[in-house]
Design goal:
Helix content: 40-55%
Structural class: alpha/beta
Number of helices: 18
Distance between the termini: 54 Å
Number of strands: 14
Shape: elongated
CATH class of the largest domain: Alpha Beta
Bound molecules: uridine-5'-diphosphate-glucuronic acid
Radius of gyration: 23 Å
Amino acid sequence: MHIAIVGTGYVGLVTGACFAEFGVSVTCVDKDEQKIAALQAGRPTIYEPGLETLISKGLREGRLKFTTNLREAVEQSLVIFIAVGTPSAEDGAADLSQVEEVAEQIGKYLNGYKVIVTKSTVPAGTGAMVRRIIGENAKCRFSVASNPEFLREGAAIEDFMRPDRIVIGCSDPEAIAILKDLYSPLYLIDIPFVITSVETAELIKYASNAFLATKISFINEMSILCDRLGCDVYDVARAMGLDRRIGPEFLHPGPGYGGSCFPKDTRALYHLGRTLGCDLKIVNAVIEVNTRQQERMIEKIVAILDGEVHGKKVGVLGLAFKPNTDDIRESPAIYIVSRLVALGAIVKATDPAAIEPASRVLTDVTFCKDEYETAEGTELLVFLTEWNKYRKLDFEKIKSLMQRPAIADLRNIYEPDYLKRLGFAYVGVGR
Ligand code: UGA
């Protein structure tokens, strides 16, 4: 089967490379010529473990192609995925202009029956809009479907190959059969398929992300109580998570969720509710708690610096919004570092992958090659991303390098008692 993926961002690229691995002939399309040239040369334009190998293999074996020619890709394909960006507009709504533009072009280039599938995260009702736009431009029969992705950055290939579920939103049996066939390697290993309406599939994606964000904001809220009561939020989360109805995942307190999905999707879901006359109170509270959590982190830092940030030397470990990615979009670390700089701190920072993107948005920060260079001469070391390489640091060395041994462990990487015993002033989140 030939398929096209329009948009070679995170979702499009991973999806294309993984379908090629399934044996499908995939053409990935993007209007960015530089991106396409890099991908044609086998150089991934994003940092994702395992992706480079899949792209090289797909290119070498002739199942994966990259092009800027949308017309040709559409004409050759039975299934066309729309995987372009849906960023937040000013008012928090999802900006669908790229989806609209691509739908119009696909409509013009249709040369026979095809299934057009939205993979981008879009509000319920977008599939109907895509159907209308394509219908206005097309001269042949087509089907529209929604097939949301549930890929985590840093684990996207594994998530694609072994997902918890595949959601297909479509009302047309012919298109459903084609999509099931496309996903047959997953069907054969008993991955559950949820076949539903286009609108329901679109909502499933937002509901899933909003629920995960809710778990994070909930435990972050509990961490405030733990700070006040002297309880250990880690034990609270662990004991809660052992209840199978709750589950252990997404109960790690920290500086708030970030990334390209949760912040944008919770805002878009809240906005969708408002446009439909529904005040989604939980979603709104989740967003508010997340914003407040970032402020709380600043308060913790100010407190451990004895109430004065101005002129203080602070080292920051981790800038990416989570480990195993170079993505800094809506990263709490970027917000917190910017605020520290604005408050007059002298900040040094490092990250195993995200220095380059961070240096484009953070001014007045000295970037260091590693943890020890970052710690040198500082009065406070702040952990903001829980990279594995930060889990076994030589604290004797760090203590000897620092001007004053103090740690703000905003990802709860270390046992507080361990660092206190070593002579560090310590603050964590809810413990
Ligand atoms: C998220 C979802 O997990 C994916 O299922 C979804 O497909 C994706 O969004 C998307 O919509 O495309 P991702 O943004 O890659 O994936 O990252 P997560 O691993 O979910 O983490 C998001 C944020 O929550 C990070 O800032 C992370 O540090 C934070 N987080 C996560 C916590 O603070 N606590 C936790 O317990 C878990």
